[in-house]
Design brief:
about 40% strand; single chain; seven-stranded antiparallel beta sheet; about 190 residues; four-stranded antiparallel beta sheet
Length: about 190
């Protein structure tokens, strides 16, 4: 009975995951591009992909978490970047009982400038579920933006940063995502 109720409410989880991906990956860049960042500015004139690197954006986990707090409704979905993983926590009421769901991703900057979210764990009601199956469900049930590639066989989600245009003709490339050492940097290119 609980499983059926969870399946009926799975759209909520997918909706919140979609909001999270948009908030975590797009909002910081848009805000920092137009409002500026106090953390760092670095000019570099060449880029391996052919575009010119205009500047770098550097964030700490705390800065990323402040952006997430502003952009994601924390009353329904707790989202934060911890020391080792991007963590999502939600609670669903099923037949008068609260069921906790938790998902952890390890974010990585790929050589091509894309962002890889490697699934580390997924639990619901304290029960650990296989990442491959959960991601396959996400892939088939959620309408993802073109820049999001769900890759269940490799237990990951890839954000194709080249498909995300910020402003007129500008792109963002992930440079470093190292939560453990508190280093998060991206390059803005034209």
């Amino acid at each position: 009975m609980c499983i059926l109720s969870i399946k009926n409410n799975k759209w909520k989880g997918f909706f919140f995951l979609s909001i999270l991906l948009n908030a975590v990956l797009l909002t910081p860049f848009i805000l920092l591009l137009f409002l500026g960042s106090g953390s760092g500015y670095e000019s570099d004139l060449s880029d391996a992909e052919g575009g010119n690197s205009l500047f770098s954006i550097e964030l700490t986990r705390d800065e990323l978490n402040r952006i997430i707090e502003k952009e994601v409704d924390q009353s329904q979905l707790q989202t934060y970047a911890g020391e080792e993983a991007l963590r999502l926590e939600a609670s669903f009421n099923v037949i008068g009982r609260d069921i906790n769901a938790e998902m952890e991703f390890e974010p990585n900057a790929m050589e091509d400038g894309n962002v890889e979210l490697e699934e580390k764990s997924f639990t619901i009601g304290g029960l650990s579920l296989p990442g491959t199956e959960v991601l396959a469900l996400f892939e088939s049930q959620v309408e993802w933006p073109e820049y999001v590639v769900v890759d269940p066989p490799n237990d990951r989600i890839v954000i194709d940063m080249q498909e995300i245009e910020v402003g007129e003709g500008y792109r963002i490339r992930a440079d470093t995502i190292d939560l453990e050492n508190d280093i998060i940097s991206f390059k803005v290119t034209d």
